[in-house]
Amino acid sequence: MKQVRYNGLTFEPYIEREKIQARIKELAKVITEEYEGKRPLFVCVLNGAFPFASELFLNVDTDAEITFIRLKSYEGTASTGVVKEMMGLSENIEGRPVIVVEDIVDTGKTIDRLVNTLKAKNPASVKIATLLFKPQSLCCDVNPDYVGFSIPPKFIIGYGLDLDGLARNLQDIYVLKEQAD
Ligand code: IMP
Ligand code: MG
Questions:
Q1: In CATH, what number is assigned to the domain containing residue 40?
Q2: How many domains does one find in the chain?
Q3: Does 107 sit in the ligand 1 pocket, CB within 6 Å?
Q4: Residue 31: C-alpha distances to residues 83, 114, 119, 147, 164 (Å)
Q5: Residue 162 annotated as catalytic
Q6: 106-155: per-residue pLDDT in tens?
């Protein structure tokens, strides 16, 4: 695999598609066992989580539903700290087990705000599934339940993750070169 460039920045291969997909299958298996007969509602956080949510949902082997919400907190390679809700939830989630599906938990502000908003609607439970987790960047009291990969606080792109809207269609995950080991 080769390096890629976006907006004048160079990125190098970090996690291969095969490894991503194998890990998502493992998460789906655990979720399938834990939610058997409970009919969970997956809430995919757009835009970044759609490839992960798709792969995860397709591999869950029990009755489940999926819906989508849209939030935005990043500009360039840093979080703005302000979470904007671009598209809200239309379903009634009262009494239902909800699994929020995120691409990445960085500072945790996005997911923290979202989980609190969802809990106010009285679901049976709210759990968090995230493809990537940067524990060292965390500044909220957030504890993701299903984590694909825990990574250092590096800026990454691909498999849904973007740099100002670009690079979401990369099949593998890449890391900003200057920060690579
Ligand atoms: P948080 O609110 O700081 O946890 O940020 C969460 C959101 O920021 C994620 O849903 C991503 O959209 C974005 N984000 C965080 N880290 C990265 C990264 O390394 N690359 C691309 N987007 C990121
Ligand atoms: Mg996101």
A1: 3.40.50.2020
A2: 1
A3: yes
A4: 28, 21, 20, 12, 32
A5: no
A6: 999 889 989 998 998 999 999 999 999 999 998 888 999 999 999 999 99
* Single pTM value for the model: 0.91
Check if 11 has its Cβ closer than 6 Å to any atom of ligand 1. Answer: no
10 occurs within a structural domain: no
d(CA 163, CA 177): 14
In a domain, 22, yes or no: yes
Pocket test for ligand 1, best of 11, 47, 50, 73 (most atoms within 8 A of CB): 73
User: Which of 6, 82, 103 to mutate for ligand 1's pocket (most ligand atoms within 8 Å of CB)?
Assistant: 103
Distance between Cα 37 and ligand 1 center (Å): 32
Q: Which residues, 6 or more positions from 142, have their beta carbon under 8 angstroms from its beta carbon?
A: 105, 108, 111, 112, 115, 128
Q: Is residue 167 part of a domain?
A: yes
Residue whose entry in the numeric block shows the structure tokens 């809700």: 85
The per-residue pLDDT for range 2-49, each reduced to its tens digit, is 999 999 999 999 999 999 999 999 999 999 999 999 999 999 999 999
Residue 92 belongs to domain spanning: 17-172
The amino acid at residue 98 is: V
- What ligand 1 atom has the least distance to the C-alpha of 162? 21
